[in-house]
Amino acid sequence: MPPTGIQYHFVTNELLLPTTQAQSQEFALNIDGNSQQHLENKVGDLLALLTSSVPNLQLQPTLDQAINTGQLVTLHVVKADDPLNDPSVSWSIFLGQKAQSSPKFDGSDKFVINPAAPANPPIVGLLKNGHFSGGPGTARMQMLLLGQPVEVNLIGLRLEADLSAKGCANGKLGGGVTVDEFRSTLLPALAAGLNQVIKTDKAAATPLLQALDSDHNGTITLQELENNPVFMLAISPDLDLLDASGKFNPGQDGVKDSYSIGFGFTCVPAAFTAPGD
């Protein structure tokens, strides 16, 4: 039976990028559902490696600013009979339109779901003693990498969070990014962000160029990122999520076709009209 109950409306008030190895492990999830319960976060490891290699690289502050000013809005609808214990719960994620003013995140904010964004199917899971665990599912997510806006499709999406009617805490969500999307979306955004840092931050520019600019022309290219000996292992796909036909079917053909990625998040009540209201 599909989940029933009250719809609780929330907005992300904090999205946490893994900028240290400890955070990468903290936000990791068992995305492919392997029986050994291995936790994966390959992109998190890459970001942690990048921030450890370049002192004062500002990954989290630019993302914080986008959320705090209402430029990046992620909305959630949780449908449950009981916000603490329910064996069948749905958690839907929506991309929101930019807010007209900076949100207060006190429950009084009003938002609008972006009608042009793809509709993410609900993630189905369970609530036990106020802890939600759900997936796998799919979702289109928004983030910022070094100030560069990125939208990415996650497959095999897993979501966990401590939940109540007052919001969610200790949340983490993660999934797989296909090789094609990683190379066409995430990696170009990372290169563009690094080149912007080189232009605007002289202190960070020197270690970045020394580490990544192999041809010494003052610009970091996609090829330099992909071929850098330090980053080669960090940008190799680590998950087999798709079968030979391209369907989500983990561990079927032995081909590593996706990169694991995981984030932390919190959310607070918000007002908006969602499907089913």
Rg is 19 Å
**Count of individual beta strands:** 8
Integer count of domains: 1
Q: Give the H and E element order.
A: EHHHEEEEEEHHHE
Assign the structural class, choosing from mainly alpha, mainly beta, alpha/beta, alpha+beta, or little secondary structure.
alpha+beta
Please explain how this structure is put together.
This protein is an alpha+beta fold. It has one domain (6-269). The chain is built from six helices and eight strands. The chain has helices at 21-26, 42-53, 60-68, 179-200, 202-212, 222-227, and strands spanning 6-16, 74-80, 86-95, 123-128, 131-145, 148-164, 167-178, 258-269. It has an eight-stranded antiparallel β-barrel with strand order 1-2-3-4-5-6-7-8. Helix 4 packs across helix 5 (202-212). The longest helix has 22 residues, at 179-200. It starts with 5 loop residues before the first strand and ends in an 8-residue tail after the last strand.
Strands, helices and their partners?
Elements: E1 6-16, H1 21-26, H2 42-53, H3 60-68, E2 74-80, E3 86-95, E4 123-128, E5 131-145, E6 148-164, E7 167-178, H4 179-200, H5 202-212, H6 222-227, E8 258-269
Antiparallel strand pairs: 1-2, 1-8, 2-3, 3-4, 4-5, 5-6, 6-7, 7-8
